[in-house]
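Q: Two folds, back to back.
A: First:
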Amino acid sequence: MRTEFRLLVAVALMVLVMVGTNFLFPPVEPDPSLSADSVGLAEGLPPAADTGLPGALLPQDEEGPATSAVPDSAAQEVETTPAAPRREVVVESPIYRYVFSNYGAALEALELPQFKSLVSGNGPVQLVPPGTESMVNRLVVGQDTVDLTQFGFEVEPADGLTLAEGDSARTLTFTYGDPASGVGIALDYTFRPDDYVVDVTTRAVGLDRPMLVTTLGHGLAFNDADSAQEARAMAYVGNHLSDGINAEPLRKVDTPTLVEGPFEWVAFKSRYFVQAVLPGVGVPDEEVYLGGILVSPEPGDSRARIAVTHAPSEVTRFQLYMGPQDYGRLQALGADLEEVNPYGWRFFRPVVRPFVGAIVWALTFLHENLHLSYGWVLILFGILLRVLLWPLYMKAMRSQLKNMAVQPLLKEIQTKYKDNPERLQKEMMKLYKEHGFNPLGGCLPMLLPWPVLIALFFVFQNTIELRGVPFLWIPDLSAKDPLYLLPIFLAVSMFLLQWISLRSMPESNPQMRLMMWFMPLFFGFIFLNFPAGLNLYYAAMNIATIPQQVIVARERKKVKPIKTGGSAGGGSSGPEKKKKGAKSSA
């Protein structure tokens, strides 16, 4: 069962229990359709076994290609160079370490030193799966496909790049020239020391409007301790110009798939990291898009290979982002790239997104300003939320107490007018007005914590700030408690709250007694494999609720039912009626 579905079931049951409390006892997500008009297959391209491409996709509109070729004058000359021996070229800064091959400028490895891999000891996160290559470029020209990894390129600077904090952007250039044919190819990678964005430019001389095909690789490497959960999160995502963002899990790719463009970006994503390709700057005042995507399954693996096409041109520019799913960094790139790992089902996202943003801001603010670990921050956050909701919770509880007091009158009205629904409705509304209570008033204020709970679930699903954060015996707050102590503690806290409430009831209620035993066990089971941080927050909020629950229980014991006095829906009765009569006699 998917964890999102389990959370939805849990919250639905919570809401059902709260709403049903007033009545049971006193207190009473298709794949988007692809537009064939926006993209077409290039005719006459033969199958290319080395690329797996049956052809190529070119973005078009009604008047022709959506992206125009850069003029011939923009193509810079590339000097011919002899073949070079195979070697590695390293580019590193405080936040990344790229390892390229001089053959085709393919990316062989990428480390992120600021993030620890949870499956390889204390080493840094590796984004390129071992034994594979990423960013493999090919050129399609007429009937031919040129695999750039077959050629040894000269590299400038030859020793790679080392960028320190504060350095300006620097460029690593790969060049290849064939004296016999006069063909020259160059690839420029421009890096910044504090940015995961790489600007890529390819230039070709001696080729007639070649089309660049970029293979992103075989997905992202596994870096989380829970490989099963990470495999479920692995997906390729595209932001289609007309159909919007769509994600497809890699484990569901079982046949080669051709996805027509144009796209504003294409990406691989895991729980916390992303590899994205975005179109670069083209002709001024003209929009530039990526072409189509070819998806190929990897037999016996939970990964898949995707290739992206660009518009035919002697000069092709695009951007590469390989790094954490940092909301601010992705948002700065535009085109809604921050939604590459959407929160839950599509209909949830507009509601959950504001809560997620506010919660992440609050947690990081408390963490940075109070210098507390995120575990203590979650405990503090749960207590603060309960304190803020104290007035609303008290209002909800007192509304339930009024509900208890008028139950005899309500039952009398229901009995007297059971055959007259219209009169029954009228008398009930009159009763609500006279005694100043709302039958749902005890439920609605209590629903406010649940959007926060749902948002926190998604915060722990893919918020990079909480990844791998330890607390006491828990190695990772974003993963399940390995000893299951927090789910047990959560169940005990729920039982304690219901036990306090049940003891204050004027009459024994079998349904409520059943709930007292069943609900803690059920929610303990539901939350068993949820992130430990979520259990910690919820348990802290329950414990902070106990003093308020004790106060409410004392008030509940003092509530006396309003006597009917033999009349229903006819105004005050019982003690209130006697008091009015005594005052009149006086």
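A: Second:
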Amino acid sequence: MGGDEKDGFSIHSDLFEQYLHIAEVMILVLDRNAHISFINRKGEQILGLENSQLIGTSWIDTFIPQRNRDEVKAVFREIVAGKVEPFGFYENPIINRSGKELIIKWHNTVLKDGDGEIIGTLSSGEDITQQKRTERELQKSRDDWENIFQAIGDPTFILDTEYTILHVNRSASEAFGMRPDEMKGRRCYEICHGTKTPPHECPMGKIIQTGEHQREVMEVQTLNGIFLVSCTPIKAKGKTVKVIHVASDITEQKRMETELKESEERFRSLVEDINDIIYSLDPQGRLTYLSPAFGRIFSYDIDELMGKSFVDFIHPDDLPKALERFEQLFEGDLDPYQYRLIDKDGRYVYVESSARRVYRDGKPIGLFGVLRDITEQKKMQEQFLQTEKLSSLGGILSGVAHELNNPLTTIVGFSELLAKKEMPENIKEDLTAIHEEAIRSSKIVQSLLTFARKHAPEKRMVNINEIIQDAYRLREYELRVDDVRTEFELSAAIPSTFADPYQLQQVFINLLNNAHHALLEKSGGKLHIRTFLEKDIIIIEFEDNGPGIPDKHVNKIFDPFFTTKEVGKGTGLGLSVVFGIVKEHGGEVSVESEAGIGTRFTIKLPVLIKTPDHEATHTDVYSRPEGAFSVLVVEDEELLRKFLSTVITAEGYYVRGCGNGGEAIRAIEEENFDLIVSDMKMTGIGGQNLYTYIQKYHPDLVNRMLFITGDVLGRETQEFFKITGCRYLEKPFTASKLLSLIGELLLSSAF
């Protein structure tokens, strides 16, 4: 019997194993160490390995992704220890032979021996990777549909065939002032019409009967408007089960349509004299009406144009966009747009078109619109664009000028120091040339900064001749290259006057540019600049021998945006700027011109005297105070710091150099200094913050601070110097000027 039982057990075991191998799910047996002790053929297929390669393999270390291993190991230890029940169903990723991740849905149980001890786990696993992917795609599709549904700009409902609201979009909720949950479950006609039954003309009844898309223009009492109601069936097995109901507000269009029918004659008389063009088109784009303004602007006989396509008059480059917009207008896009039309003489005129669909019995019968001639406006826009380009160029010039200030200061300073040493005469001459050219470059840089910097009006006592020369330096190269010979006759008898040097520099640059452009037409010529005093009036003349200004333009020359140059070669702003600045200074500007002879601009400025505010002024003559003094130099550019230290050390002072404000603060806490020379703008702690620190913790040093800066024109920097009264040197500067100010500060301070 024992043998029979054994044979029976063997037969049953074989059958059971065969069953496991033909199962359509993975059957997996793990021992207490999570090693595979049995796996069926489905498991082999899923993992891509044979049974001999799998038996004895660590399941967790081999087939569980790295990110999940620690968690799975911890749970498995708890299960085989009998501390937790295995999960009934559990999903987790595994990795097959090719490294691909699969999602497996497991059903787990524990295996016990005859004594009830847990010896492992038995799991059946179903590959649900595709199912999960399908679920994600289905959810994405649902989310996309919902987003589109909510983005529809018109109130939109989804209804069942009993008129019950199943779903509403945001536009519907906002239009009716109700939350979506307040609308769902109610009949659409209750909310839209405030009735207990559907209105007679409701398209819902027709769509339920016919199963076809329906559109109807209806009055929606609760919204006090006329709406185009579109109903589209949602079918299942050929039967309508739901309806998408969209209500587009056409109240304004209906009003226009009604008024057009009732008052066409009144409309015609109304538009006869206006400057804008009233037009209408049929659905094929043929002209059905043009107001008289079209004939005045385009020189056409309007009667000859009726029935012709509007595309015949559109610039070829603008035609594709115009046709696209025409189609969009019939689909609901009503935004204004711009294009060019051709007049009878072949001239192109810029117009802006605004249009509306016209309906009759709920159907669009054409377009009604307005054309506005915007040719002058477009010209002004182009001129403003040129102005913006000039502004951007100013910003670039300002940045370049500031970047050049530090190296120029170093070149000016070291060349000055070297020139004082004993050396062969020819080398000294070369050094002198370097020094003079660096000084010349520094003046050009300063002129660039002055011209490019935007600043509030800042009047002070100025020398007109110097401002003219500064302005000329900015244009000298271009004038010389284009063979414009410039002659100066600047009177030394002209006194200083109270004015804004930056604004006057703009005046003179604009006059130089104007003469330059005029003389380019002759491929060169002569520009004569003259100043003289007439009683208490300073007279400034810019006279060229260019082609002159036509008589018809002379009286318009100072008008804003007036220019005789083609687009891109003149903004029409320069001379209007000249006029405004001169007037603001209490002066006058006039022009005399003769065709073929030339043009002379004359500026008259009154001599104004005013005591100037305190400025950081100094001379190159200086005296070194007696005694030993220590100076702290704070500058983040190494070469400039070296120059400053060299100059000050050579004068007999003790110098300590620092690369930024933070280093300077540490130096001040370590040593005593008699004077601080600091740059304004540095990486880290800058000059203003360093001043604030010294003012708080070392107030005795506040009056012994000398700043060097390349940004003296900046509003923030000006305000700082005005409030603090600190002395400063504007980059680039010479060694003599530096030592002069150091001497002044040390001599004026009481130790």
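Q: And?
A: The chain is about 45% helix and 25% strand.
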